[in-house]
Amino acid sequence: YYSTYLPELYKMVLKQSAEFLKETLNEQQRKGRKRSRPKILLANNLDEAMELYGKYKSNILGVISDVGFVRHKEDSPDMEQLDAGIELVDFIRNDDPMMPILLQSSQESFAEVAKNLGVGFLRKWSKTLMIQMSEYIKEEFGFGDFVFRDSHGAEYGRAANLKELEAIVKNIPDNVLIYNTSKNMLSKWLY
After folding, report:
1. Longest C-alpha distance within the chain, in Å?
2. What residues form DSSP beta bridges with 121?
3. Helices (H) and strands (E) in the chain, counts
4. Is this prediction's pTM over 0.90?
């Protein structure tokens, strides 16, 4: 499914980059922001995924993974490990419990597994697959507006840029501000 996802992901990254370029003051700042835009890393097996996560974990905004895939580069597709994605989630969660992860599968039964793991889930054959993926990335990977919510999900404010964030932060209750910063979402959005 990565051939379906990659063009959509690139569109989202370019759109997000274009929004941030509006805030720059000069050409040097524009160049710096263009170089620092999010990169998309692709792993074709569990070993690669774990290696990429280990190498870039301090800069990863989130992970999208299939539930089943092969473990090693040399493995043939018929050696697919049906729960490799679950193993990847466990590996990442042991290191960073707050990392946003989106699992996908053609088997609806994995939706409950994903829910129990505290990760997002996409059903591959869904008619709204791209919309659901886009919404998850905007919400969990720090794309789009930053939305201040309390622990029950009630919205207290929304910022599309740094100026709006500066204005809103003054009026956000302390407990809501602490809740949003403790989940690392503000840091991801700023990044």
Report:
1. 56
2. 103
3. 9, 5
4. no
Select, from the ranges 2-16, 80-94, 130-144, the one with the highest average predicted confidence (pLDDT): 80-94
Q: Which residues pair with 64 in a beta bridge?
A: 102
User: Coil, helix or strand for 71?
Assistant: coil
Summarised one tens digit per residue, pLDDT across range 124-176 is 989 999 999 999 998 888 887 889 989 888 999 999 888 899 999 999 999 99
On the 0-12 / 13-18 / 19+ scale of CB atoms within 10 A, 164 is middle
Handedness of CA 156, 160, 164, 166 (dihedral sign): positive
- For residues 127 and 175, give the distance between their C-alpha atoms in angstroms, rounded to a whole number: 39
Residue with tokens 């990044």: 191
Give the Cα separation of 93 and 89 in Å (integer). 6
At 16-51, the pLDDT tens digits run 777 666 666 677 776 766 666 678 899 999 999 999
Give every CB contact of residue 106 below 8 A, 6+ residues apart in sequence.
123, 124, 125
| Inter-CA distances, 45 with 17, 76, 90, 100, 101, Å | 29, 11, 16, 19, 16
- Residue 42: phi, psi to the nearest 5? -120, 125
